Amino acid sequence: AEYQYILVERKERVGIVTLNRPKELNALNFQLVAELADALEEIDRDEEIRCIILTGAGERAFAAGADIKEMADKTPIEMFSGGFAAWERIRRIHTPLIAAVQGYALGGGCELAMHCDMIVATENARFGQPEIGIGVIPGAGGTQRLARTLGKYRTMELVLTGAQISAQELAAHGLVNRVVPPGEHLTVALQLAQTVAAQAPLAARLAKESVQAAFETSLEEGLEQERKNFFLLFSTEDMREGMRAFVEKRKPDFKGR
Ligand code: HXC
């Protein structure tokens, strides 16, 4: 498919999607988010791709938020029907997603990074939810996902003051996986992605789904989902192959079946 605001490439079994409006600090206009959802769904259907990296073009930003110029005159109904559902489609991607963040990840940019399953960020990355400064609040999960990881008090400070937070502090709270020198975020994300891509892909998808359940259901329901996913994997050829390879002391050859 042809996209105006994103770039899509493949490196072996890893898909790389780049937000590509560097002059606007990759501000997320409605078309960009729709293209992103389309591209991620297309990659999600591609059995050859087993992990996806999401990154921003240019050195200054992953994404500086939703496009304020586009939103400035919108009505609630236009916001509701203007493609906000794309965020839900991104949340439902089965393939593991890794955000590679350099520079600003603010507002919707911070929320987009938090839609991913792991986050690699440079030392100079700055996260935050500055929406309060333009008279609104986070609208794509920022209050919820930050609160569930940073806790109530630090999250309140961030969303009530719009202050930025460093990759180092987020890493200390477990919200960033790797803090790396500027310019190395893609390399490190790719290494991480290749490690994920080498695993049995159905197991990776069900692992992702099961961990996500920890955010979305009670412990009892989450445990039940995990158990069912665990049992389900005993129907796969890759499970036989993985266990046989262990017994035979060789590397498994996973086929995604
Ligand atoms: C539209 C944006 C933008 C944005 C930057 N730009 N962020 N355009 N929407 N969110 C544009 C600027 O207008 C400018 O273009 C160019 O990118 C470079 O930005 P500057 O401001 O000149 O750079 P700098 O002075 O270095 O400041 C960087 C910054 C600042 C601190 C990141 O740009 C900033 O505060 N941006 C807005 C951050 C924000 O409030 N995000 C939350 C948005 S609301 P021109 O052509 O003017 O020079 C949101 C809600 C999400 O995200 C809800 C779910 C979708």
TrEMBL record:
Pfam families the UniProt entry points to: ECH_1 (PF00378)
GO MF entries: hydro-lyase activity
Keyword Lyase in annotation: yes
Keywords: Lyase
Protein origin, superkingdom: Bacteria
GO BP, sorted A to Z: fatty acid beta-oxidation
Signal peptide start and end residues: none
Classification via PANTHER family: ENOYL-COA HYDRATASE, MITOCHONDRIAL, ENOYL-COA HYDRATASE-RELATED
Name the record gives this protein: Enoyl-CoA hydratase
